[in-house]
Amino acid sequence: MCGIVGYTGHESAASVLLAGLRRLEYRGYDSTGIASLHDGRLHLRKLAGRVRRLEEALAESPIPGACGIGHTRWATHGPPSDINAHPHLGGEGEVAVVHNGVIENHDALRAELSADGFTFQSQTDTEVIAHLIARELRLLRDPQIPRADLLLNAVLRALPRLEGTYGLAILHRDSPGLIVAARQGSPLVVGVGEHEHLLASDATAIAPHTRQVVFLEDGEVVRLTPDSLQIAHVNRGPVTPRIDRIDWAPDAAELGPHDHYMQKEIREQPETLRNACRGRLRRDQATAVLGGLNLTPRQVRHIRRIVFAACGTSWHAALVGEYLIERLARLPVEVEYASEFRYRNPPLDDRTLVFVLSQSGETADTLGALHEAKRRGFPTRAIVNTVGSSIARAADGGIYLHAGPEIGVASTKAFSAQVAVLALLALYFGRIRGLPFVDGLAALEALEFAPEAMAQALQTEPLVRDAASRFQSTRSALFLGRDLLYPVALEGALKLKEISYIHAEGYPTAEMKHGPIALIDPETPTVFVAPRGPLHAKTLSNIAEVKARGGPILAVGTQGDAELQRLADVFLPVPDVPELIQPLVAVAPLQLLAYHVARLRGCDIDKPRNLAKSVTVE
Ligand code: M6R
Fold first, then answer.
1. Mean local confidence (pLDDT), 310-314
2. Potential cystine with 34: which of 70, 196, 401, 555 (Cβ 3.0-4.6 Å)?
């Protein structure tokens, strides 16, 4: 979704902003623009389309200045167009604003400002913010206020008028070298450099410049010049900035020798699993160590129910978590769509622990679910990848995935890291709640083997590449799995539809005969996620049923499973591993399948149509 970047320092603002915008492209957007400030003038370039077009426009007609703001827009109010692209100017061009989020009372404000003589160019909700600040600047012609504080004061007076969510960055024609930024419900991070400050909605954009960052909280406003950084809370006054360090190398977000981020991230999974488990396995006690959870063993024993709330791929991972925790810890688990949990007012009791799962830590529905649980006084925990994200900071404790930045819109390595972390959680809860040492040790050893098992599963790639051609002109596919592999079937279907635009549905295998079997025909492939397990014989019967109806069959199965191989048209063998880590080895060929099908179909793999990496609107 929308991205913000800002720079004030000694380099060309346009170059720094362009580099930042390029690093934000993965979030999904439809238009882009920058504004710089130089010699008492605001210089603006903005257009619909990709950052590459903006770069060309700037090469033809450069803009000067060492202070500026930039934006990638994902249209909400008004279609993608040059006019609707950010930055937006306020007043008679004295203010430039970029904005992430949604202003809910923009209609009323637009009417009020129009009546006051302000003229609107765009259909966006953002333009009202620009005019609102310009109006406050005019009203603030108070000689008592030092010129350098004018913009900050105008912003502080304008913000209470806004209803909704925002991450804002603002320039004022008469405030050289100054950026004022504000956050309410939409993330912002400040980068601290040598005689320079940066600003971004996502640390990825500024990581090459600096790894020293300050995460802003809701309600905070920041005033940035090359040599100063001041933060104030709108109600509580000055705030002492807390400098954090980005814990991943900036080149972790680079494509390197890979063709797509999705491909890179699929291949990174053995390392992702290693990082997710590093330092968290305790062999002498056959358990996991999860310090950030902030739960004593006594508190764990007190829990009677767990509710997971998440969206998309994170929801699928949570479903694996349900099976794992119920099995190892004998604790009832419910998995909710975050968007439903938030509004349907589910009955919870004092012994319920609410977990939210999110790769980005910024998904609006998931953040909303977390706030709702907190509002009702329930203890909350989060499983998150992005350090310092809104969800990570709002929860009462949690577990980081340590998967590094995930850039491809289709989530891959975050899924496997989530599954690994959920297995750790199941082991930890299980060992407190009666799981025998020997079973704990078996789970621990399975997790230790997971990186190697994933590396072996990824070796299916040449076979998957061949299989992909069978899907190239498919219109619809079924993905079936049971028990722990049912969520993997859902995830395989989601991956295929997201990036190749082929309709795909996931079901528990045995559900097939209750409806989906009607879809089976020679044009509709069925993907069985079928590594060996206690119910394998039943799965083989289901496969035979599809075969009898002429449906093509692709099976992901245990290496050496001759019976499965005989039944399937395409057999993708994965290593023979304990059930606990079967979801990890089984998902790898499905991710690769989606990737190669999308590639054959010429789809934009890392930026699939209509999708955004981090869905920060409801
Ligand atoms: O960042 P989150 O994990 O909260 O994101 C949740 C979903 O938006 C996300 O998983 C989405 O479904 C992905 N595009 C899946 O590939």
1. 98
2. 70
